[in-house]
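Late entry, NAP complex.
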Amino acid sequence: MTESIMPEFIYGTAWKEEDTERLTRLALEAGFRGIDTANQRRHYFEAGVGAAVAQAIGDGLVQRDQLFLQTKFTYKHGQDHRLPYDPNANAATQVRQSFASSLEHLRVESIDSYVLHGPSRRHGLDSTDHEVWHAMEELHAAGKTRFLGISNVALDQLEELWTRAAVRPAFVQNRCFARLGWDRQIRAFCRDKGIVYQGFSLLTANVNELQHPQFRRLVDRIHKTPAQIVFRFALQAGMQILTGTTDADHMREDLDIHGFELTDDDVRLIENIGQT
Ligand SMILES: NC(=O)c1ccc[n+]([C@@H]2O[C@H](COP(=O)([O-])OP(=O)(O)OC[C@H]3O[C@@H](n4cnc5c(N)ncnc54)[C@H](OP(=O)(O)O)[C@@H]3O)[C@@H](O)[C@H]2O)c1
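Prediction complete; structure with ligand written out below:
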């Protein structure tokens, strides 16, 4: 398997339906090199992502080893009727079937990160979660995925997985609420263990907080857009940033966060904005 890059930004492909291929291509043209999807037809059109990636590689826009491709295994309760596996098979078989179908959709031999979309319940891990993780570890051992990750995870679940897994998660992908200190506890655990924290809904989960007068004053002083300031904050706070914008200008704007830096005070202010 080739070495893969670790981009600062990941382009999220949820909810794009028939526009998935076009928007994924647009994102690659804008400069995104990380792509996040899932074999969950209810919210993602993984085959559309694969078509865009294949075309971009075929055109010479990118090479496979310049891309970070991430997809997910999703339990039946998160799916609609378009399942990527036999619902009557055991969990390990479902993981293998879902993964094989992902490779077909994405038209690649291997991926960079395979993510458990979410544990089977809100707290604690059950035997099915461990069975699924073990099947994911086998894919990792076979060189089919470079890393494993987990999404929508609570701290107790992450601690348990960290303790019990033979192949530990390299990524955590969570919705990042400012009112929870931007997922402060999980981020601290990740930082401590060397896990890369991927934040999503950085804008949409924090609409009220981004109206806060202190944040507005920061925006006025720095002369960047609120989105750029949030993403710059996320970068300086050590996150890998997910954005699923459908707008070409926003794509460029999101990636353009290197011409300025937030002070430590600015970072602290944003980190606490939901708690003031
Ligand atoms: N693991 C999970 O369970 C899970 C759940 C949800 C999402 N995700 C992943 O995270 C990705 C991102 O999802 P998200 O929830 O963060 O929301 P999103 O799909 O990125 O939506 C961002 C929203 O903010 C708007 N926006 C306005 N200005 C923007 C700017 N400058 N840059 C970016 N967006 C701007 C966008 O509108 P425009 O389109 O007009 O820019 C869009 O409506 C998904 O595609 C998916 O890959 C994972």
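The chain has a mean pLDDT of 96. Will revisit in the morning.
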